[in-house]
Amino acid sequence: xxxxxxxxxxxxxxxxxxxxxxxxxxxxxxxxxxxxxxxxxxxxxxxxxxxxxxxxxxxxxxxxxxxxxxxxxxxxxxxxxxxxxxxxxxxxxxxxxxxxxxxxxxxxxxxxxxxxxxxxxxxxxxxxxxxxxxxxxxxxxxxxxxxxxxxxxxxxxxxxxxxxxxxxxxxxxxxxxxxxxxxxxxxxxxxxxxxxxxxxxxxxxxxxxxxxxxxxxxxxxxxxxxxxxxxxxxxxxxxxxxxxxxxxxxxxxxxxxxxxxxxxxxxxxxxxxxxxxxxxxxxxxxxxxxxxxxxxxxxxxxxxxxxxxxxxxxxxxxxxxxxxxxxxxxxxxxxxxxxxxxxxxxxxxxxxxxxxxxxxxxxxxxxxxxx
Length: 371
Hints:
Strand order of the largest sheet: 2-4-5-7-6
Helix content: 55-70%
Order of helices and strands: HHHHHHHHEHEEHEEHHEE
CATH architecture of the largest domain: 2-Layer Sandwich
CATH topology of the largest domain: Heat Shock Protein 90
Radius of gyration: 31 Å
Distance between the termini: 11 Å
Strand content: 5-15%
Number of helices: 12
Number of domains: 2
CATH superfamily of the largest domain: Histidine kinase-like ATPase, C-terminal domain
Oligomer: single chain
């Protein structure tokens, strides 16, 4: 199947596929189906419905299927070349390729039919029916022009959708900027004189975070995302000290597990800013990650600062409907949109409050689907 991340990268660098991938299982199935319908159409148009018989249909179907499948296989092999070529050249090459395959298959078909009927060869050669060959080429020229034009327009629409998706994801990710920048810079400034080694490490952690924030918006290994989250939490621990406690519960995960880049860090940022900082004694942030029924499950919990049991329900309503702040709402909305852009309806972001604990739950397919 096509890799959406590759398609998005192609759109970014100015290259895009000229035709769809005709070698996928779905494309081959549709190609065989359309070729068979075409064989029925050509046979009925040639001999009429009254004279239509299974032998004639089988011969026409055999030739049409071979032409369609052989053309698709060659176009698949030329896909990278067509991607790099100008549309006019790519279209001409594709069109002539189909006509060339039709010519070769028509000659082979006449030769096989000649042998099947037991006709004698003249000097080792058989009599080629030029009119039948010309008829096949004319039919192929018309149908190839229509089909290739349809496939080209379909692929261009797909390329446009991929480019729009890439731009939308990039716009969403560009809004996510850690608001702890000034606090981090103050921490670095205070550490330069007393602990230069730690200050250098904090600068490196901060650099890694912002490098990820400005990177290409695509899927990255989950382990890489977790490393960025640890960098962020290390920076916040310098400022909050023992008030910030972190608990990681990561189950054994499949190799190659991916996640949209910079997806978890904004959630941890919200957990620190809205759950830990308001509490004089701080609190604990728990991160659980596991795979269940081909779904990646990420659960983040943090304390909710409630003034008193009397107004707990009021605070709960505020948190559920309005969020703790505009930044909180924007970060969660962006994350929800990015999950939908990559995985569609197969991904989900939900929030829940149970007494003094706020829980964020993310689920998405362990393999990229639908995009």
